[in-house]
Amino acid sequence: MYKGIEEYLLDNYKHILDLLNDGIIITDKDGIVHYINPAYTLYSGIKYKDIVGKYIGDIRPGAILPQVLETLKPINNIFRKFNDTESYCDYIPITYDNVLVGGLIIVKDVVRVKDLLSQIKESNKRINQLDVRVKETFKANYTFNDIIGEKNGLKETVDLAKKAAISDSTILLIGESGTGKELFAQSIHNYSNRKDMPFVAINCAALPDNLLESELFGYEEGAFTGAKKGGKLGLFELANGGTIFLDEVTEVPLKLQAKLLRAIQEKRIMRIGSEKNIDLNVRIISATNKNIIDLIKENIFREDLYFRLAVFVIDIPPLRERKEDIQLLANYFIENEIRKTKKVINIDDEAMNALKLYHWPGNIREFKNAIEYSCNVTDDNIITTNDLPQNVLKKINIDKLIQKNINDNLKKIITKVEKSVIEDYLNRYGNTVDAKNKIAKDLDISIATLYNKIRRYNL
Q: Which domain holds residue 68?
């Protein structure tokens, strides 16, 4: 049984106390010194034999520790000067079962404290700079004002997206490629109360399975061969407080879907190679251009994950169902090109009608590219049909041909369309033997059949 706290400390921790850079004095409950470490001798110049066994108040007149032993309230960061050494001192009562058993003085070198504070300040500065860089890098640039169109359900789609944004529920965006799913995701983020926090987007189809997991969840140093020193933050961590956008979420492999489901349910993740949970506060928006219900039936996508991701399901209509918005969109993108090129550009009625005839399989993305192309190739600052991309014109001409000859017999229609298609392929690939082999393969006909048709149509 120890007689006092000083004996317990000395028997169990003396070898540690002797190595500390901070000066240490230990007294009993009456203020009698029982121990000083070498660092205290270095600061004060007082040797062990000259202080141990003496009352602290006799060694240093005006000593603060007796007051602390009386009140049982610690006093911290008191400036003291030992010879030429400036220090900060902490005075701490030591209690056991709420009974005073001793006192502790910790002496910290001012220079070292200032160095530490300077390092902390510099570290905080770097953290703030990194925080700014993260927010600038992972930033949503678009708002609902950038979604152009009002017809055929788009207005209703935007209204639903705004309601979803105000909530904190998960959102699944469904739409064909090029319909603007990320535009909607960014707009939702900027309409929500998370708008000042990061918006982190990832295309789940762009990475192999093993890399996708480490990108989403991060990893610890040494978690696998090639892991970076110090490990890596995952995108979920980078998005914490904000929004993560999982584009093409149906491409996430089944094994990883289970981990994603757990992250959503538990609101926490675990880095690869770690056993520590990291709490999450993140809004999840996902998107797909596939029929997710069919994927569930085929056991390609988990039904329970679908229900977690799809509190709000927002269908974004394709451009071919929004032909009334074509003129509005064309004018919008032309205005963008005017701002970039500083030249006046208009579009004539025939070209506008041609844009409305095309079915736009690439949706808004293809439409925007077509307008940009036309603005750059027009010579007279007025876009005509001749300025439209060739693939658009050819498809429009085929559609017109079918419409014009709708009253012809079926054989004539098929013949005209067939000739136009083969002519289109020859113009695209050329008239070489290799080109014709490729055309036959694309059209799923034999090379002999292709040659017969070329001769028949005099192509």
A: 5-113
